[in-house]
Amino acid sequence: MLGIAPFAQRRVLFGPAASILALAASDAAMAQDPQPRAGAEEQSIIVTATKRETSLLEVPFSINAQTEADIQRSGATTIEDLSRNVAGLSIQNLGPGQSQVSVRGVSAGQIVRDQPGVKEQVGVYLDESVISLSLFTPDIDLFDLNRVETLRGPQGTLFGSGSVGGTIRYITNQPDLDRIEALVEGNLNLVDDDDFGGHIKGMVNLPVGESVAVRAVGYYTRYGGFIEALREGGGIDEDVNDGHRVGGRVAITFEPSDAIRITPRILYQEIRADGFNRQEVYNLFANPFTTTRPAVTFDERQQFLLLDESFADDTLLTDLTASFGFGGVELTSVSTYINRDILVSRDASSLSGSVSVDLGFPEEAVLLPSNLVDRTDLETFSQEVRLSSTGDGPFQWVVGGFYSKTDRFYRQRLPTPGYDAFTDATLGPGTAASVANGFGPDSPYNADLPYDIRQTAFFGEASYDITDRLTATAGGRYYDFEEERRFTSGGLFANGDDRTDRTTSNGFSPRFILSWEAVEDIRFNAQASKGFRLGGVNDPLNLPLCTPEDEAIFGGFQDYDDESLWNYEVGVRGQRGAIGFHAAAFYTDISNLQVTLDAGSCSSRIVFNAEKAHTMGVEAELSAEPVDGLALSLAASLIEAEFDSTVRDGAGNVIGGIREGNRLPSVPEFQFSADASYSFPIAAGAEAFVGASYQHVGSRYTQPGDQEDSPRAFVHGLPFGGAPATAATIVDLRLPAYDYVNLSAGVDWENGLGVMVYVTNLFDENALLSFDRERGGRARLGFNVGQPRIIGITVRKRFGS
C-alpha cells in the first residue's frame, strides 16, 4: 500500500494499579459508601477470564481487573489511560480509535493505517464478543463498565488467534432485574491551556416485570485539540486534531428462570477527528533548508498541512448471548455481528511531491495538494457455542467451538487534481491513461483489496483439585484458518497489479497450569502455554517509487507465516487484610515473530518473520490501606524483549535492525506507577478526598531498525525550494522515557452526588509515543505525541432505588 506513516471522571487520577483488591462495589454500596476500602474481603472481584465465573484470587494465571470503582477513581476514558497502571501493558497511540496494544513485550513494531492484512497480537473483547481488528480495534468508551480485565500471557486456548500476547476484555454492567437506577455525568476540561473539551454521559436501568430488564447507555465526548498546523503562506491553524466520540448501547435481559438468561444488545459508536497527534521535524514544504521558500523550524506540537486531515469510524455491533443451565452443566451461545466503516483522510502532498521531484516534474506539480484516502468496509459474523460445568466438585471443565467469517474491503485513493496533465507533459502524452488500470483520472495511486477470511476452532479446558490446595489445569485449542485476498492497483505510483492470493493454516495451542494455595488467600501458580497469530500476504511493493537498492532488499517478502510462542511463568497472588499483592516472573519463546518495517523509499510497508525472539521479565502490583482513609498502590514491570536471530539480505546485510540481541520495538523496558488518595469526612453524609499519581514509561523504539543507527541523519535527497540534495535532518530515534504527574480533589455525598477537580500531566510533558516517516524520510518526519496538560471538573449524580 501507499504508506504515510483523557478526560478525568473521579478520584485519584490513573487510580489503583493493583487490582488484586480493587473494589467491585455494587451500585447500592457506591451510593452508601462513595469510597470503598481497599482490601475489603467481602467485596471480592468476580471475573470470567476462564469462561467461568470465579473470584480474581482464584484465577490461576496473571490477570489485572480494573473495576468500575477503579475507572471512576482514575478518571480514565480510554484503555490507554488505564494501561499506565497495569503492569506489562503498553499502548502505542496513533490517534483516536487507532491505538496498538502489547502485553509483556510481545510486539512486532508499528502497524500503520494502510496495512489491512496485519493481524492483532492482543485479543480485545466486549463481554463475550471479539472486536479485535489489528490497528482499528474500536476505542470503546469506559462509562458504565463493570470492569476491564487484562489477561497477561498467551490466551489462545480459550480466546483464540490474536491473543498471542494476552487478552483485554471490556465487561459491561448487565441489565439488573431488581433495581431502577440511573447515572448522569458531565465534564468540562481545558486542553493545552487553549481549547475546551468535555463530555456528557448517562445510564438508565429499568426492570420490566419480574423477568425482563433494560439497560441503556449514551455518551458524547468532545476532544480538545492541541496540535498547530502551519499553512502555505504563513498562516497557523490552532488545535487541528480536535474531534468527538458519540454513541450508546442498549441491552435487554430476559430471565424467565434461574437457569435461562438471554441478552440481546446493540451498540453504535462514531468517532470523528479533524487531524492527528503528529509533531513534525521535517516536511518537504516546511524545513530549514529551503531558500526560495520560507525556511521553517518546527516547535513542539506543530505540523505543516496543505490539506485538512480527518478520521472517521462508525461501528455497529449487535450480539446475542444466551445461557441455559441443566443438570450441573451450562450451555452458552454467543452470536455477534459487526459492521464498521472507517475513513482515514491524510494530507499526502509531501509524499506525492517528493515523487514528483524524483520524476523531474515542475514546481507547480510538486506543490499540488494530494489527499490520501483510505476506506475500510468491514462485516464480521462470529458464533461461539460452549458447554461448561457449574457444580462445586473437584473436576471443572469447559468445551466449545468457534466460527467467524469476515468480509473486508479496503480501498485507497490519492486524488490530486491536475496531476495527469503534468504527468503527460513530463513523461509523454497518454502516460497517465496508460497506467490507470481502470481507475479514474488525477489519482496517481489507487488500490482495491477485498478480503474473505474464515476461521473455525474447537477448544476445551479442564481443572482438577488434586488436593484441597493443589489444582491442575490443562486445555487446548485447534484452529483452521483461510484467507483470500484480491489486490488490484493502478496509477503512476502503482504496479498495475491484479492478483489473488490465498493463505491457509491450522494448528493446536495447549496450556498447562498448576495452582497451589500455600495458606489461606495466598496462591502460587506455574504455567506453560502456547499462543498463535495468523499469517498473511504482503501487498506488492510500489516499484515505481523504489530505489533499485530497496527493491532488491524488500522485493522478496511476499507471504509470512503464523507467529507462535510458548510462555513459561510462575506467580503469586494474595491478600492479607488491607494489603493485596500480585507478582509474576515469565519467559516467552517466540517463533516466526511477525515484524513490520518500512520498505525504504517504496512508500510500502512489509511484514516478515524473524525466526526467533524472546521476552522475559517480572511484574508486580501492590495495594494497601495502612490507615483509615489512606489508599496506596504501586505497579511495575521490568521486561527484556529481544531478537534471538538475525535476518540478512542476499549481500549479507542485516535487514531493518532484525539482529540478534536488538530490542523488540515499541515496548518500554521499565514501567512504573504509584498513586495515593486520602479521604476524610467534612460533614454529615459528605466525604472529601485528595489524590496524586505518578506514572513512568521507559524508552522505546518504534521499529527495530531505529536502534541500529541513532541518532540518524535522514538525507532527503530532494532539491526542492532551493534546498540542497545533501540536506539532512538528524533525529534521535530512541523515544525518551516520560513521566506524568496528576492531581485531584473533590467531594462525594451519600445521596450519590460527586464533584471532582483535577489536572492531568501537571508538568505538561510532551511524550513522544512513536516515530512517523514517509518514503524513508524523503517526504516527512515526525512523532506521534501524547496528551498535554488538561485541567477539568467532573460532576456526577447517581439515582437508584
Structure description:
The chain is mainly beta and 801 residues long. It has one domain (19-340, 353-800): Beta Barrel (Maltoporin, Chain A). Helix content is 7%, strand content 53%. It contains nine helices and 41 strands. The strands form eight sheets. It has a 22-stranded antiparallel β-barrel. The protein has a five-stranded mixed sheet with strand order 3-8-9-6-7. The chain has a three-stranded mixed sheet with strand order 14-13-18, with no helix packed on it. It is globular. 55% of the residues are buried. Residues 4-43 have low confidence and may be disordered.
Task: Estimate the strand proportion.
Answer: over 45%
Number of discrete domains: 1
Estimate the global geometry from the Cα principal axes: globular
Q: What assembly state would you assign to the polypeptide chains in this entry? A: single chain
List the total number of helices: 9
Number of strands: 41
Helix share, percent: under 10%
Under CATH, the homologous superfamily reads: TonB-dependent receptor, beta-barrel domain
Unreliable spans: 4-43
Structural class: mainly beta
* CATH topology-level name: Maltoporin, Chain A
CATH architecture: Beta Barrel
Biggest sheet overview: 22 strands, antiparallel, barrel
